[in-house]
């Protein structure tokens, strides 16, 4: 019988106190909607909930108590906001109410509907959904469907003018009700029509100014001055007819947001000029709102919020506190930590991740999936533009030539001085610091290559639907090693999201089947999911003999026994959609989809206490130590084997001691950098694990 000497009775207490803390950034977000009432500005985000600013300075605080944030992107995306006195309504998958300006939220109703828009007409509230329009006469407590005459139930936007209610739809154009929603009439004459598919273009937004109704469609801006009986195109000045996502009116100024930024008209829409100074051309805007003299513009990708105090002449970022980014990767260079975001570019931290600053000069593609540092060089792998390199700590970037168009990079890794890039074309290798690249797919099918790990002279790569491949000659040839790997529901193998090495075991994380292990260099694989309640694994990291798994929707899980058992480690983690995990010295970082970065200390999360002496009097002293320390175990151990690992799972010491039986004691001389290490003593029957700090 094996005896595991862990002092297990201490673990539950320590795990409870393993608290994740959100860092200050990276800032940004996808802003679906903005609402303001003078003293309060609310911003609804994609998968990050709601943020509040109490002034026009652009400083934000998350206000998500009671909202289903980070559990599922469908449930935690805020699509609409409405302020009515002291009540704030939020439309997500259902309607939520706050009566204390966002400090707490309560689900009211319509929990199975995506709430695209909310408007008031007197005491009546209307909700637009993909399943039609609903009416509430009791402040949102109960709702009734009101779809008589509404031939397109996919309703995107609503606008009220007196007793008239207008509804913009996906394919039916605009509908009008003059009787509080009891019946609807289509009023789409003149709106853009797709003759091939025989439907009207998508209507994103409706805004009313006196007798004029403005419609933002998938094909530009249209105006009606006769209650929708007819519509006229007013698109002079737009460089292209693009979707108009929001229209804002401020006196004589009319602002229209689009995928090409913001446009301004001062003559009722007859002419438009770009209003993008500070936003940039081709940077999309989803939402617009006015608070006093300040205009807020919400970006359609995680660039966050812009504000203008001069009528749109200039714009500036207003993202402080807006932690709504999607963080895909981390890397470290000396004392500088880097993070990659999908849609907001690259960020750096000089204080171990507590605060982050954007470093995107000349990084023309800000959808960054992967990072790699090599000496003073930093490499960023993007979604569609290949690899960029910075030689000045991210101050500027230069695009590298991979010789293929539209290269999507999933990982960047360094092995034997060569850089490996997993892409949608297969595997690129550079042997000259990224100056030139070769595509090495001999034996490997053209597939998205998504993960990388090495074991001695062997290289393993994971892919989308093609499983795992092995190369024993630096990537010149590849062979499949898929025996035992799970099959994907729609053909091929499960998506391999992550590969790590734990001792001599290769651990693979999959998108829908959990974690697999190979103990024989990839010849066969077996599942290790006991306790892993979420099988959508996005990332794996190793620290000593411990494995941590990030999952999408289930947060972070820990295994102390090579995956035989897992426990969740989510205290303080308000977003459970984990995209990446990274260990830097004594800390672990979790990158999320929608809530930026969370940080925890390894010693806390692993539940190890240096002062504990177990029942067999197993000790390491002194601890902390310098180069020399003593391992003492008052327990019979036959030929004990001592292994010491650093925090990324690399073995730094291994020695077997013959002819020891009782009261094992040994002085160990270890010359390694300062930091945390993990000591494992075993003899085939007994296993002793202990944390060691080298000063």
Shape designation: elongated
Mean pLDDT: 89
Helix content: under 10%
List the strand order in the largest sheet: 1-65-64-61-62
Per DSSP, the total helix count is: 3
Biggest sheet overview: 5 strands, mixed
Radius of gyration: 29 Å
Strand content: over 45%
The tally of strands reads 65
**Which secondary-structure class do the elements indicate?**
mainly beta
Low-confidence stretches are 1-17, 608-616
- Calculate the terminal CA-CA distance, rounded to whole Å: 36 Å
Written description of the protein model:
This protein is mostly beta strands and 695 residues long. It is built from three helices and 65 strands. Residues 1-17 and 608-616 have low confidence and may be disordered.
Element layout with pairings:
Blueprint lengths: L2 E3 L5 H6 L4 E2 L8 E6 L4 E5 L4 E4 L7 E2 L10 H4 L3 E5 L2 E12 L7 E9 L2 E5 L2 E6 L2 E5 L7 E2 L9 E7 L2 E6 L4 E4 L7 E2 L6 E2 L4 E2 L2 E7 L2 E6 L2 E5 L7 E2 L10 E7 L2 E6 L2 E5 L7 E2 L10 E7 L2 E6 L5 E4 L7 E2 L9 E7 L2 E6 L3 E5 L7 E2 L9 E7 L2 E6 L4 E4 L7 E2 L9 E7 L2 E6 L2 E5 L7 E2 L9 E7 L2 E6 L4 E4 L7 E2 L15 E7 L2 E6 L4 E4 L7 E2 L9 E7 L2 E6 L3 E5 L7 E2 L9 E7 L2 E6 L4 E5 H4 L12 E4 L6 E6 L7 E5 L5 E6 L7 E6 L5 E8 L3 E9 L1
Parallel strand pairs: 1-65
Antiparallel strand pairs: 2-58, 3-4, 4-5, 5-6, 7-8, 8-9, 10-11, 11-12, 12-13, 14-15, 15-16, 16-17, 18-19, 20-21, 21-22, 22-23, 24-25, 25-26, 26-27, 28-29, 29-30, 30-31, 32-33, 33-34, 34-35, 36-37, 37-38, 38-39, 40-41, 41-42, 42-43, 44-45, 45-46, 46-47, 48-49, 49-50, 50-51, 52-53, 53-54, 54-55, ...
